[in-house]
Design a protein that fits this description.
This protein has two domains: 4-100, no CATH class; 105-134. Helix content is 69%, strand content 0%. The chain contains nine helices and no strands.
Length: 139
């Protein structure tokens, strides 16, 4: 977390640094409560800063708030009525991060002409065989 004196010196708040603050933790917890209702508080506690929420708080502190936001969106989009567990939430964050990862360069490059010609020839041969079968000829 950023100290008030550090924020005053740099002009950069924790909000801009993508770091957790007590206020951010509470906002996250309120968002999850809004998503899952009283089931959330029965399962995980009312106050993220309280003793009952130590495990969730520690897991959230191990990721960036922007990553937790991806997990929240994944929970929201899942349509689940029952609150997710910590392992489920971490998996949703991981899946969301993986889906945003850039495509490796070797997949972005066009395939070589020789490979393309070979595939086209193989495809033509296959289609000619189907055409022969449809016309009643043996290939």
């Amino acid at each position: 977390m950023t100290s008030p004196s550090e924020e005053a010196e740099t002009g950069i708040t924790s909000e801009l640094k993508d770091e957790w603050t007590p206020e951010r933790l509470r906002k996250f917890w309120e968002a999850m409560l809004g998503l899952y209702g009283l089931t959330w508080t029965r399962e995980h506690g009312e106050d993220i800063l309280g003793d009952a929420c130590t495990v969730w708080r520690n897991e959230l502190m191990s990721m960036k708030p922007s990553e937790a936001a991806l997990g929240y969106q994944a929970c929201r989009n899942s349509g689940d009525c029952y609150p997710c567990t910590i392992p489920m939430f971490i998996k949703r964050v991981s899946d969301a991060l993986r889906s945003r990862a850039p495509t490796p360069m070797h997949r972005a490059l066009p395939e070589p002409k020789a490979v393309r010609k070979e595939r086209m020839a193989s495809g033509r041969e296959y289609l000619d065989g189907i055409k022969a079968l449809l016309e009643g000829r043996d290939s």
